[in-house]
Amino acid sequence: MIITKTPFRISFFGGGSDYPKFYLKYGGKVIGTTIDKYAYLNIRKLPPFFNYKYRIVYSKIENVKKIENIIHPSVRETLKFLNIDYGVSINYDGDLPARSGIGSSSSFTVGLLNGLNALNHKYSSKDYLTKNSIYIEQNMIKESVGSQDQTFAAYGGFNKIEFLQNRKIVVTPIIIEEKKLISLENNLMLFFSGISRHSSEVAKKQIQNISINVEKLEKMKNLVDESIDILLNKNIDGFGELLDYTWQLKRSLSNNISNDKIDEMYKKAKKAGAIGGKVLGAGGGGFMLFYTKDKQKLLDALKDYTYIPFKFDFNGSKVIYYKGKL
User: Fold this and answer.
1) Distance (Å, rounded) from C-alpha 68 to C-alpha 295?
2) Rounded CA gap, 173 and 94, in Å?
3) Which fold has domain 178-311?
């Protein structure tokens, strides 16, 4: 039996520049962090005593005889990718809901790839997990997804990630003074909007609009280095102001990134003193992140929404249980 633990992520700046259609032509760059909320996968070989060969448990339960009959796209294509020909049982649990903008689908794929390799006594490097989970999601499943979620899930940590035109991905940890890091962590608040959506469907429109949004995406990409300068050299509150600016840019990329409910939530937060914020992931719903100096006031203003306390996490996908060993 194998159990993997793979973190979810929060993306701060540069999102949208991690789509291959953009970065293979212009180069991409993001900054974000993984958090102490995880995808857990329990994976084991299935004894040949059942009338099915593959058992997958998530929000649904699938018991099937053939890989091609598996509905869950990541499970189906990852099993194909690894040429798994034996029976397997896969159970998923997550700390946060799916389809909510925290990279859950990519954390699932990375954790599954890591776990299946461990089941076959193979070590998966961070680079291997990044490149192959991107390949599975973009080329096999053919989802409209970027390349940052898989990278954060595999590497973990507070990073700048650069996507080069030659397809190389460069991960650079951001080393922040402890006092500033704690201050940033304390000033960030995560709320669930109550809206779940398929990010690939929202992202599809953004990808279609890339050619007319190059200038905006370049501005969003350039905020990565500006935010790092704030973290290293300036007043940390400038980070919140940049979040407000990038949200205004992001919401103008397509008409399905925001909606009346998200706009109203953002207005309430700003009225309650939030310096800035943004919707996480592709948009359209899911989680919203805010930067504030008065957490209680924001909690009161957004009392109708679910608040999720979190801490930064600095570990990528890990095998935490292997054949009875912790």
Assistant:
1) 49
2) 26
3) Alpha-Beta Plaits (3.30.70)
User: Residue 228 in contact with residue 319, Cβ under 8 Å?
Assistant: no
pLDDT of residue 5: 98
Tokens read off for 27: 């180069």
CA-CA distance, 181 to 314, in Å (whole number)? Answer: 13
- β pairing state of 88-94 and 54-57: parallel
Pairwise CA distance, residues 235 & 96, whole Å: 31
Return mean pLDDT, the chain.
Answer: 94
Same fold, 2-175+313-322 and 178-311: no
Position with higher pLDDT, 233 vs 324: 233
Q: Model confidence over 5-47: pLDDT tens digits?
A: 999 999 999 999 999 999 999 999 999 999 999 999 999 999 9
**Domain residue limits, the chain:** 2-175+313-322, 178-311
- Given a cut of 80, whether residue 283 has pLDDT beyond it is no
Rounded Cα distance between 177 and 165, Å, is 32
Fold of 2-175+313-322: Ribosomal Protein S5; domain 2 (3.30.230)
Distance in angstroms (rounded) separating the CA atoms of residues 183 and 4:
31
Contact by Cβ (8 Å): 104, 281: no
pLDDT tens-place string over residues 229-275: 999 999 999 999 999 999 999 998 888 788 899 999 999 999 999 99
Strand, helix or coil at 240? helix
What is the Cα gyration radius of the chain?
20
d(CA 74, CA 11): 22
The two tokens of residue 23 are 């970065």
